[in-house]
Amino acid sequence: MDLLEDLEKSPTSFIKDDIIIRSETALDRLYVLTKGWVIAEKMSHADSRPIVHVFLPGDIIGFSELPFQKTSYQARSRTSGIMCPFPSSRLSRLFVESPRLARLIFAAVTIERAEQEDRASQFCRNNAAAKLALFVLQTLDRLKLLNSNLRDQFQCPLTQQEIGDLVGLSSVHVSRTFSQMEANGLIQRHKSFLKVKDYDSLAEMSDYRNRYGSLNLDWVPAHP
Amino acid sequence: MDLLEDLEKSPTSFIKDDIIIRSETALDRLYVLTKGWVIAEKMSHADSRPIVHVFLPGDIIGFSELPFQKTSYQARSRTSGIMCPFPSSRLSRLFVESPRLARLIFAAVTIERAEQEDRASQFCRNNAAAKLALFVLQTLDRLKLLNSNLRDQFQCPLTQQEIGDLVGLSSVHVSRTFSQMEANGLIQRHKSFLKVKDYDSLAEMSDYRNRYGSLNLDWVPAHP
DNA sequence: CGAACACTTGATAAAAGTCAAACGACGTGG
DNA sequence: CCACGTCGTTTGACTTTTATCAAGTGTTCG
A60: which strand partners? Predict the structure, then answer.
C-alpha cells in the first residue's frame, strides 16, 4: 500500500486539451491518471487522426511507450483532470521491492492487452453498430471500476469525430448509427451523456465480455 | 539463462490443426512456441471466425488469458511445430527468483501490446491494402527476430480466408487486393510464399513502424 | 448575443461484401 | 502414376455498407 501511494505522491492538475505526452519524444516517466479523460492519438500526415487508446481514471499512461526510444503517439487531455507522474525507474525498482505488486501490475497490463485484442478483432470488422456498442460497453464497465455509483450511463467528453477516429468510422456515420441505435432502444443520448438502455443486446451484437467480471488471480499469491 | 531454459525443458510437438487451447476452459499453463504457427480464434456463433492473434516462433501463448477464469478463444496450430508448456505458477515464482527476468518479460508483453495497438488502430480503418501491408510487414519483422537469415520473404501457412478473418476483410477481397498489390510491384507471391518487394511503400501506406527496431531497455538494468 | 464548434440530414460516390462459378494445386487411393 | 475429389484461389456480376461533400441546425461559451 505504501508503494502504491508512493506512485501518487505528486499530483498534477491539467486542463482540457493539454498535451501530456508529445509525439516522437523520449518518455522517462509514467502517469497515474486519477481524474479526467486522456486520448492517445497518432499524428498521422493525413487529416484523419487515428486514436490509439482512451485513458480513463485509474489507468496508467505510458506503459505501451516505455520500451521504445520515441513515443509513437501524443497524449492529449479531453477534460480537465489530475495525474501523478513518476519516473520509470520507480517501476523498475518495484520489481525488486515488491514482487507481489509487480505481479499485480503485470496482471493489469495483461488485462488491458486482452481488452485491446477485443477491440482489434471487433473494430476491424465492418459493422458500425457493433463497433459503437463495444466502445460504449467497454467504456462504461471500465469507468465503473473506480466509480462504483455509476450505473447505466456516463458522460462522454469525446466528439463524434473522435469516437469515429477511435473505432474507424466517419463522424457522419457515427452520428447516423448512434441515431439508429437510439431509435431501436439500445441507447439514449442527452447532451454529452450516454445511457445504456439494453446492455444485453449491445453485448450480443458486439460479442462483448466484461474483462473485469471473472478474473482469476490465483497466480498472484497473497503472501509471496 | 538457467531460468529461461527451465521454461523450455519439456518440448512437445504438435501437428497441423491441433487444438492447443480449448475455448471457454480454465488455463493453468503457458506455452513457449519454439516452432510453427498458431492462431487464436474466437468461436463466435456466426460463420465468420475472428482471428484475435497469430503466434509465431518465440512467442509465449496464453499471456492474455492468464488473468481470467475462462479462455475467450481457442488456439489452433496452422503448421506442425514444437511448444514447451510450463505452469503459470512458474511465471509467478519468476517474479521472486529473478526480478530482472520478470522485467524483461514485462517489457516483452508491453512491446506486444504496442503492436496490438498498431493493429487495432490500423485494422479498424477501411483500407484493404493498408491492412494487408501492415499484416505482411509486422509478420516479416517478427519472424526475423528468431530467424536472422530471413530477408524479404516468408512462407505464410494462413489461407486468404484466415488472413481476412485477422484483418477484417472477406476472403474475396483479400484475393483481389493482394493481386492488385502484386500488380503494383509492392509484393510478390509464389505458392504460399510472400515476398516484400517495396518495404518502404508498404510501410508508408500502413503507417508501420518496426517495434523491435528502436527499443530502449534502460529501465531493465543489467545488474539489479 | 454572436461565433465557433459539434451534430444532423440529404445526395452521391467509393469501397467492400456476397453469391456463384470456374480454375488450380494438392494429396489420396485405385 | 494417373484419376479424382477436396480445398483454396480467382474472377465476374451485383448488393450493401460506409465515406464524402455540402448545407443546415443546434449548442456552448466567451
Answer: A32
Residue B117 counted as domain residue:
no
Whether residue A115 is found in the same domain as residue A76? no
Residues 150-209 of B with CB under 7 A from strand D: 159-161, 171-172, 175-176, 178-179, 189
Assess whether A135 and A197 both reside in one domain. yes
pLDDT digits (tens, 9 = 90+) for B79-110: 999 999 999 999 999 999 999 999 999 999 99
The residues near B198 (Cβ < 8 Å, ≥ 6 apart) are B185, B186, B187
User: Edge-to-edge, what's the strand order for the sheet holding B81-87?
Assistant: B12-14, B81-87, B29-35, B60-61
Query: Which residues lie across from B31 on neighbouring strands?
Result: B61, B85
Domain residue limits at B159: 126-206
Number of domains within chain B: 2
Q: What share of chain B is helix, strand, coil (3-state, %, to 5)?
A: 40, 20, 40
Closest CA to A167 of B131, B165, B138, B122: B122
Contact residues on chain B for A86, CB-CB shorter than 8 A? none
A156 domain residue, yes or no: yes
Residue of A nearest to B96 (CA): A99
pTM score > 0.85 for this model?
yes
pLDDT at B3: 76
Q: Can you give the pLDDT at residue A45?
A: 66
Q: Which of A77, A85, A84 is closest to A54 using CA atoms?
A: A77
In chain B, whose CA is at the least distance from the CA of A206? Answer: B44
User: Is residue A148 a part of any domain in this protein?
Assistant: yes
Which band of pLDDT confidence, cut at 50, 70 and 90, is reported for residue A224?
very low
The CATH number assigned to the domain holding B50 equals 2.60.120.10
- A98-124 pLDDT, tens digit per residue, is 999 999 999 999 999 999 999 999 999
Q: Is residue B73 part of a domain?
A: yes
Question: Residue B224 — pLDDT band, cuts 50, 70, 90?
Answer: very low
Higher-pLDDT residue of B54 and A5 is: B54
**Euclidean distance between CA atoms A168 and B121, whole angstroms:** 8
Q: Which three cell numbers stand for residue A194?
A: 450516454
Which amino acid is present at B77?
Answer: S
Domain check: are A24 and A68 in the same one?
Answer: yes
Of residues B69, B60, B65, B71, the one with CA closest to residue B94: B60
